[in-house]
Design brief:
With about 170 residues, the protein is mostly beta strands. The protein is built from one helix and 22 strands.
């Protein structure tokens, strides 16, 4: 699906299990600020921006990726009023774009690859890796409190892992 003009939706966009959907922002804005969740991914979804100036404006959460879901974000800028991305156990996420959030940009329990991205949180951690696996390369991660928080094994019962290469991770407290 290619946006031909700015689009505002009042409820979450749901990508069902078994579906494979590509959304091209095409330089336009997808506004989901009226919804608590912008895009719920149970199937496979790719977000691209062929015009390189597209934006996703979301309410509390821009994306929720659930067990078995796969989301690839390659283009555009995403702004969220809460945690921009919540990646649940058994979900897969690939990020190559710009995110800003007034909470953590990414809360992860699944598998995440971040390459050539910019993640900015003006309140909390850029990445909060609860118990998943995160690989970061050629990216900038900023969190007002912490660039990255890795793990709460006592609460989530796992050993989270983060691999970082050729990237900048910073916070206002570092």
């Amino acid at each position: 699906y290619q946006l031909r003009e700015d689009l505002t939706i009042s409820s979450s966009l749901n990508i069902p299990s078994g579906n494979d959907i590509t959304i091209d922002l095409n330089g336009h804005t997808l506004n989901t600020t009226a919804a608590n969740w912008g895009v719920l991914v149970h199937g496979t979804c790719a977000i691209v921006d062929s015009a390189e100036t597209g934006t996703i404006e979301s309410g509390k959460h821009a994306f929720g990726i659930f067990s078995g879901g796969k989301l690839s974000i390659n283009g555009g800028t995403t702004n969220a009023s809460g945690t921009a991305i919540v990646n649940y156990t058994g979900a897969e996420l690939i990020i190559s774009n710009v995110f800003s959030s007034s909470s953590s940009v990414l809360q992860n329990q699944g598998t995440v690859t971040i390459q050539g991205a910019e993640l900015y949180s003006n309140v909390a951690a850029g990445i909060f890796n609860l118990n998943g696996s995160v690989t970061v390369s050629a990216s900038t991660i900023y969190g007002a409190d912490n660039g990255i928080l890795n793990g709460l094994a006592e609460e989530y019962g796992s050993n989270p892992s983060i691999i970082i290469s050729n990237s900048t991770v910073s916070s206002s407290t570092s």
